[in-house]
Amino acid sequence: MTRGTLYLIEKGFLRTEKTGKERQYYSLVSQSDYLKFETENFFGSVHNNSLSSLVTNLYETDKLSSQDIDELIRFLEEVKDRNNDK
């Protein structure tokens, strides 16, 4: 069993059953829920919950295309509009 697998079991994302020499793994959460957890974990631990830190890093490593930037602007405008409606 790898450290990554053990981590997933400890966090409650996987369960395992041993049958003879084989081990079977079962997902306990949806892919969407797991992705949310990992995104929040990464965002918090690597970027200290700073969106500007994340975007700056993507920009400085040439990972953002013009299309990506346009999509990000549209997304942020939608979020802003939703927040203003509250």
Overall description:
The protein has helices at 3-10, 31-47, 51-60, 66-84; strands spanning 14-19, 22-27. A two-stranded antiparallel sheet has the order 1-2. The longest helix is centred in the last third of the chain and has 19 residues, at 66-84. 0% of the residues are buried. It is elongated and about 55 Å long. The chain is α+β, with helices and mostly antiparallel strands and 86 residues long. Strand 1 and strand 2 form a beta hairpin.
> Averaging pLDDT over every residue, what do you get?
92
In quaternary terms, these chains amount to single chain
In DSSP terms (H or I, runs of 4 or more residues), the helix count works out at 4
How many β-strand runs? Answer: 2
Radius of gyration: 19 Å
Strand order of the largest sheet: 1-2
Biggest sheet: strands, sense, closure? 2 strands, antiparallel
Please provide the ordered H/E string of secondary-structure elements: HEEHHH
Instruction: Give the distance, in angstroms, between the N- and C-terminal Cα atoms.
Output: 47 Å
Query: Overall 3D geometry?
Result: elongated
How does the helix and strand content classify structurally? alpha+beta
Give the proportion of residues in helices: 55-70%
> Strand share of the residues?
5-15%
Spans where pLDDT lies below 50 across 5 or more residues: none
